[in-house]
Write a structure and sequence with these properties.
35% of the residues lie in helices and 25% in strands. It is α/β, with parallel strands linked by helices. It is globular and about 50 Å long.
Amino acid sequence: MSDILIFGESMLELTAKGDPLMRRAYAGDVFSVAVYLARLAPPELKVKMLSAIGRDTFSQHLRVELEREGVDTRHMATHPSKHLGLYMVQNDASGEREFTYWRSDSAARDAIKLNDLYTIPTPDYLFFSGISLAILDAASRFTFKRWVSDIKKLGTTVIFDANFRPALWQSESEYLGEYRWAFAACQIALPGMDDLQQIFRCETAQQARELLSAYDIPEIIIKNGADSIVYRDGAQQGEFHVPSVEHIVDTTAAGDSFNAAYLASRIGGSDITSALAAGCRMSAKVIGHSGAIIANDDNTCEPQPVKTA
């Protein structure tokens, strides 16, 4: 039995369903990764969440939802006064989304203060994102980074998705320092090309690959929407063609669902191209539905119709 600990912020999601109705659900980058990974992971992999929620009804429902999906929530602390962050998403005709956030005082910002990291059994894998780092204050980041360094020495595989949200950072110098640390710390990197363009001014996938090669990351996957994925696995590197998708409703969680299926496949023993294909199949299905989390059924991993460009 192995385990993956996923650190970050889960949120309450409101999606426009036609004026004046809104659909309520739970989401956030790490929430989506945790749910899809729990659905797709081999039976011997236990998915766990490291975070903090409130005492409010929505927070408690979130815990129930995660546990219903098979996610272990014992490391989700309960904040005595704060509650879940909230965001609202609206989509244009092409499925691209626009977000409005209310998260500045969410319980998850105090997750590191409320959890004694050194009492958590050393996980086999740790997943976190740029958003996970951005919501922490300086003292919490210092504690988290020291702990990551320590568990990495004990054998934990560190996985990082860039997920850059400029509004969460105080300055360019702040986020550059944190992203440089994260890429140096991780053994599997799953950034999006748009993240690398905003953070490091990379204009091409080749520039992005050259940038990340300086960090000596064993496994790199650079997602680029509908364009080819640039990857490296040790000495092996190449590009993976992303099949085009016939029907796009909502691109929310496209990258998160890809991450989950890719990691489930890799941890399950698949080679990198098979894992990339699994990630693309999952992402294609998710963007054909509204909201971050699609209904769980026996065909969750099956692709929606795609066509070769």
